């Protein structure tokens, strides 16, 4: 099977846009979400400096965390935003690019007005065109997630990883419309080798490596916070996928929330903070994510199929060869076994 598939847009459920809460409205929720990200397959965040071998990104400096592996907050933000955009749904922020412009349904095109933002832009920010008044910073900020427990993995070799082939329109733009948002399947075993004759040497961290993350939310509506919580926790039989090497099986991770601390509004008379953890936290998460778990629309059904955990046994995920593409230039993605 092809290593990825598309989650389609549900045209009957376009993004719901409205003005985000701002500093003049103190009715929103504030606080910090803390938890862990644990590798279910080996994981590699490229440090950007090493070409061959490719090493994991590590903190520099003189503090107690110096030299530790970490997941950049920007990577976590991008991962969770992609889930929010898919599930909410949110806008298609790339719709201004020439290859996407005419393929995105009008209702799903990128937000253009900071007073009418989709859930993803309300939570994570919006960058319009022109003056500063067209910018919204968003309500959620992720800190870098530092490794608490690093598990080793042997240095290995990975073959060339293909870049997106948007010109292959029969997959990306069937019938002239966008196929959907692209997600990679989980798979075990991963496809790393020991042959130095091809590809690059990589040094991932092993299964069980755990990172601790925190995300601050500020002045968020309850509905948007519920969406954020679902995007983080997903469902028991789903896992996130991030990092380098997704096509060969790297980067399957489990996100777990340890506690949520709610902070009172600045103008509140009662300045007591509320902390949810343990059984109380479990009940809160179940209550506030149930509406997403109960959905069975085309978007959620495809999303669950692709990110299902554990992976389907006996399936080999590989890109079709160049010879296959030459022989099947107009074949739909389903003919590779992905659908």
Structure description:
The protein is about 20% helix and about 20% strand. The strands form four sheets. Strands 2, 3, 6, 7, 11, 12, 13 and 14 form an eight-stranded antiparallel β-sheet that branches. A two-stranded antiparallel ribbon has the order 1-9. The chain has a two-stranded antiparallel ribbon with strand order 4-5. Strand 4 and strand 5 form a beta hairpin. It has about 350 residues and is an alpha+beta fold. The chain has one domain (about 5-335).
- The succession of helices and strands, N to C, reads EEEHHHEEEEEHEEEHEEEHHH
Oligomer: single chain
- The helix count comes to 8
Low-pLDDT residue intervals, each spanning 5 or more residues: none
Biggest β-sheet strands, sense, barrel: 8 strands, antiparallel
Distance between the termini: 9 Å
Beta content: 15-25%
- Rg to the nearest angstrom? 21 Å
The SS-based structural class is alpha+beta
- The dominant shape is globular
The domain tally reads: 1
What's the helix and strand layout?
Layout: E1 4-7, E2 29-39, E3 70-71, H1 73-87, H2 98-101, H3 119-124, E4 126-127, E5 135-136, E6 140-142, E7 145-149, E8 156-158, H4 169-172, E9 181-184, E10 200-202, E11 210-220, H5 222-233, E12 240-241, E13 252-263, E14 274-277, H6 278-293, H7 298-306, H8 322-327
Looking at this protein, list some descriptive labels.
8-stranded antiparallel β-sheet, globular, alpha+beta, 21% helix, 14 strands, 339 residues, two-stranded antiparallel sheet, 8 helices
């Amino acid at each position: 099977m092809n290593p990825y598939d598309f989650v389609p847009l549900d045209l009957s459920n376009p993004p719901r846009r409205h003005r985000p809460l701002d500093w003049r409205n103190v009715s929103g929720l504030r606080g910090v979400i803390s938890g862990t990200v644990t590798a279910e397959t080996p994981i590699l965040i490229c440090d950007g400096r090493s070409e061959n071998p490719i090493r994991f990104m590590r903190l520099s400096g003189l503090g107690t965390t110096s030299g530790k592996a970490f997941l950049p907050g920007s990577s976590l933000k991008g991962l969770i935003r992609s889930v929010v955009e898919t599930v909410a749904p949110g806008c298609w922020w790339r719709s201004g690019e020439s290859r996407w412009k005419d393929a995105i349904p009008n209702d799903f095109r990128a937000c253009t007005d900071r007073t009418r933002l989709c859930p993803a832009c309300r939570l994570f920010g919006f960058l319009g065109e022109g003056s500063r008044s067209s910018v919204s910073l968003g309500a959620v900020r992720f800190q870098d997630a530092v490794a608490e427990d690093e598990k080793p993995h042997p240095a290995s070799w990975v073959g060339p990883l293909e870049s997106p082939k948007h010109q292959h329109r029969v997959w990306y733009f069937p019938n002239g419309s966008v196929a959907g948002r692209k997600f990679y399947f989980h798979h075990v075993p991963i496809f790393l080798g020991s042959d130095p004759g091809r590809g690059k040497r990589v040094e991932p961290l092993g299964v069980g490596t755990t990172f601790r993350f925190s995300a601050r939310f500020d002045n968020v509506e309850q509905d948007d916070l519920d969406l954020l919580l679902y995007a983080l926790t997903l469902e028991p039989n789903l896992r996130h996928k991030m990092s380098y090497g997704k096509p060969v099986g790297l980067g399957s991770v489990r996100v777990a929330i340890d506690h949520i601390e709610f902070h009172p509004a600045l103008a509140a008379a009662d300045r007591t903070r509320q902390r949810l953890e343990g059984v109380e936290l479990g009940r809160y998460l179940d209550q506030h994510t149930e509406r997403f778990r109960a959905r069975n629309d085309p978007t959620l059904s495809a999303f669950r199929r692709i990110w299902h955990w554990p992976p389907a046994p006996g399936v080999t995920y590989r890109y079709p060869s160049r010879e296959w593409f030459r022989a099947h230039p107009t074949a739909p993605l389903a003919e590779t076994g992905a659908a």
